Amino acid sequence: MLKITVTPAQASKEATKTYEVLTDQEGLKLNGEEFSWDLLQLQDNSYHIIHNNKTFQVEILKADYITKTFTLQINGHLYTVNSEDKMDLLLKRLGMDNVNQNKVNDVKAPMPGLILSVNVNEGDEVKKGDILMILEAMKMENALKCPADGKVKAVKVKQGQNVEKNQLLILFE
What we know:
There is one protein chain. The chain is mainly beta. Helices cover 5% and strands 55% of the residues. Strands 4-3-2-1-9-8-7-6-5 form a nine-stranded antiparallel β-sheet. It has a four-stranded antiparallel β-sheet with strand order 10-17-15-12, with no helix packed on it. A four-stranded antiparallel β-sheet has the order 14-13-11-16, with no helix packed on it. The radius of gyration is 22 Å and the shape is elongated.
């Protein structure tokens, strides 16, 4: 599933619309309803679309694949499109949706569980992606990774300790 938020460039915030897009063996569904279209790529970032006997000229003006934000020109009108895939939605539901921020102040437990190992100490320099600790939850081991480069100010938990969701685990300088 994909969640898409579309904001017209010249409109108020109320004009923003959110859609759920699902593809399966039956085809494409938009907000739970069948969606059919004809799509023809004209150039690298230019498309011709026919939907419900209407034609649309679509040009991708800007694409940021890290933030999943796109600027489209559709029939001469500008739109900003933000997308979230099933992994983004899961991370948001677990409270881990802010991992792309540059400045990291702390790491909190994404779910209740047991700390199996702590791989960092106070004063350690860590890099984005380093495994900080292993949290066992629902009989699964979850590697908690560092969301950005930084220096560990304090480790607030120990191996063998039970933690609750959103409990502070590590502070960064």
